[in-house]
Amino acid sequence: MFYTKTKLPTGRTVKTEITDENVFTKCPECGCELPVDLAEILSDGESDLFSTSIICSRCTAKRTQSHLRESATIWLSVWARALKSQ
Ligand SMILES: [Zn+2]
């Protein structure tokens, strides 16, 4: 069993067992709370609790849309340059 140990301002210490249902993180983009399965995060052997962040599905969709928009813009400007050079 793994648990967290937090010392309260009153001096009392609270121990909480870590389970697959009580670990959370915040999306670094919008700050929403996300449930985390630590076993899944650490299973690749490369991720760790300090450098790994998880982006929520809404921010992932925004990033994908933004990336697609940038790709389309680049493609259109390359195409426009190619047409001008003819
Ligand atoms: Zn988010």
List the defining traits of the structure above.
86 residues; two-stranded antiparallel sheet; binds zinc ion; elongated; 2 helices; alpha+beta
Report the mean per-residue pLDDT as an integer: 90
Percentage of residues in helical conformation: 25-40%
Instruction: Summarize the biggest pleated sheet.
Output: 2 strands, antiparallel
* Number of helices, counting only DSSP H or I runs of 4 residues or more: 2
Count of domain modules: 1
Q: Order of helices and strands, N to C?
A: EEEEHH
Radius of gyration: 22 Å
**Strand order across the biggest sheet?**
1-2
Number of strands: 4
Q: Give the DSSP E fraction (strand runs of 2 or more residues).
A: 15-25%
* First and last CA, distance: 70 Å
- Specify the overall morphology: elongated
- Class of secondary structure makeup: alpha+beta
Stretches where pLDDT is under 50 for at least 5 consecutive residues are none
Bound ligands: zinc ion
What this model shows, in words?
- The chain has 86 residues and is of the alpha+beta class.
- It has one domain (3-84).
- It has 2 helices and 4 strands.
- It has helices at residues 38-42, 57-84; strands at 3-7, 13-17, 24-26, 33-35.
- The protein has a two-stranded antiparallel ribbon. A two-stranded antiparallel sheet has the order 3-4.
- It is elongated and about 75 Å long.
- The model has no long low-confidence stretch (mean pLDDT 90).
- The structure holds zinc ion.
- Zinc ion is lined by residues 27, 29-30, 32, 55-56, 58-59.
